[in-house]
C-alpha cells in the first residue's frame, strides 16, 4: 500500500492533466457552484505545475530554443481558443476582450515574466546574461506586431471607433502571421545561436551544467507522452479558467472594476506555466531561455490571436475593438523603450528587473483604477 501511494505521488504530473480534462468534461456548459469553483481552482493550479513539468521534459529532449517555442505556441493556441469561445458566448460585452487579453499578455510577458526573470537571475548570479541579438530581434518583432495591431486601429478613419475595416483587419492578420513565421525561422533555423544560453554576450553556450542537464535526454517515446500530457494540461488550464470566468466576471462587476480586468485575469491564469518555467530557467542562470519564453509568448499572443479573431469576426455580429486608449499606448511605448535599453547590453542587474516590474505594477493599478 505504501508503495502504491509512493507511485501515485511520483506520477502526479501524469494524473493531473487527465483529472483536469475529466473535470472539465463533467462541468462543461454548466454553472459551477462555490464548492466546484474551489475544486476547479485547485485542479487548475495543479495542472499549471504539471504543464511546466512536461514542457521541461519536451524542452530537454528537443533542446533550446525549440523547448521554449513549444510551450509558448501551445499556451497561445489554447489562449486563442479561449478568447474566441468567450467572444462567441459573451455578446457585445466581449467586443474588446481580444484587445484586453492580448495587451495584458504583452504587458505580463514583456514586463512581468521578463522582469522577474532578470531580477531572479541577477540576484542569484550577479548579473543576468543573455544574447542581445536574439533578444533585440524578438523585442523588435513584438513592438512591430503591437504597433500594427493594437495602436493603428485607434488612428484609422475607414471605420468609426478604434476598429479596423475588413481590408485593414485582413492586412493586419496576414502580416502578423508573416512576421511570426519569419521570427520562428530565424530562431530555429538561420540564427539559432542567437537564442541559446550564453556565458557572456555573444557566446552561445550553456552556462551551468546542472544535474538535470547532465542527465541523458528523455527518449522519444517519453517526450511524446509528455507532449501529449502537456496538451491535456493546457486544455485543462484554459477550459477550467473558462469555467470559473463567470465567477470572475461577476466578482469584477460586483467590485465595481472595469470589464478589462477580466482580460487581465485570464492572461495571468493562462501565462502561469510560462512564468514558472522562466523563473526556473533564471534560477539555473539560463536567462536567455527566460527571455525566449517572455518575448516569444508576447509575439505568439499577438501573431496568432489577431489572425484567429479576424477569421472569427466573419461570423461574429458585434464589433471587434482592437485599438488601445491613450493610457495603454503610453504604457506600451514605455515598455518598448525600456525593453530596448534593457536588451541592448546583453546583461542586466536587479535594477532593470525592478524597472520592468514597476511598469507591470503601473499597468495593473491603472487596469483596476483607470
Q: Give the tally of β-strands.
A: 2
Low-confidence stretches: 1-10, 205-214
* Estimated structural class: mainly alpha
Helix and strand sequence: HHHHHEHHHHHHHHEH
Q: What radius of gyration results from the CA coordinates?
A: 20 Å
Amount of helix: over 70%
* Integer tally of domains: 1
User: Termini separation (Å)?
Assistant: 56 Å
CATH fold category name: A middle domain of Talin 1
The helix tally amounts to 14
Shape: globular
Name the average pLDDT.
Answer: 81
CATH class: Mainly Alpha
Strand content is under 5%
Task: Give a short account of the largest sheet.
Answer: 2 strands, antiparallel
Describe the 3D structure:
The structure is a single chain. The protein is an all-alpha fold. It has one domain: A middle domain of Talin 1 (Up-down Bundle), CATH 1.20.1420.30. The protein has helices at 2-10, 12-27, 34-62, 66-90, 97-125, 132-155, 166-190, 211-214, 220-254, 260-270, 272-283, 287-312, 326-343, 350-368; strands spanning 128-129, 347-348. The protein has a two-stranded antiparallel ribbon. The longest helix is centred in the middle third of the chain and has 35 residues, at 220-254. The radius of gyration is 20 Å and the shape is globular. Residues 1-10 and 205-214 have low confidence and may be disordered. It is found in: Membrane. This is Ca2+:H+ antiporter.
